[in-house]
Amino acid sequence: MQQDQAQDVADSFDPLRPRLVRVAYRMLGSVSEAEDIVQDAFLRWLGTDRQAVREPEAFLRRVVTRLCLDLLKSARNRHETYVGPWLPEPVFDPEPDEIDDVTLPLMLALERLSPLERAAFLLHDVFGVGFDEVAETIGRDPAACRQLASRARSHVRADRPRFPVPREWGMAIAEAFFTASRSGDVTGLGAMLADDVTLYSDGGGKKPAAMAPVVGHADVMELHAALKRVFRNDMSRLVSYGLIDGLPGFVTVEAGDTLQTTALEIVADRIVAVYIVRNPDKLGHLRREQMH
Question: What is the pTM (predicted TM-score) of this model?
Answer without folding.
Answer: 0.90
